[in-house]
Specification:
DUF3572 family protein; 66% helix; 94 residues; 6 helices; DUF3572
Length: 94
């Protein structure tokens, strides 16, 4: 399933809101990404930051299922959305 870049960005913004609403998960994201809270506010809409949000979410199956369940989304939607953002293209090994 292909996801447009606009749909992927929207999904990533929803994921960022979900991360921020979880106890202590935003601080884990900030620490793992190296972005400050102020920089996140200033650049939250950039495709690169949104890609980092989805990369972070994909690090833990519990986060994927928690977010997807809260949005009634299929679990694979996160990976499809990530592929539509910068750096998300999978290499072709053939």
């Amino acid at each position: 399933m292909s996801v447009s870049s606009d749909a992927a960005e929207t999904l990533a913004l929803q994921a960022l809101a979900w991360i921020a609403a979880q106890d202590d998960l935003l601080s884990v994201f900030l620490g793992s990404s190296g972005i400050s809270e102020g920089d996140l506010r200033a650049s939250a809409g950039s495709p690169e930051v949104l890609a980092a949000v989805l990369d972070f979410l994909l690090m833990d199956d519990a986060w994927v299922t928690g977010f997807c369940d809260s949005q009634s989304l299929p679990y694979e939607r996160i990976a499809h959305a990530r592929a539509a953002l910068p750096g998300g293209q999978m290499p072709n090994w053939t």
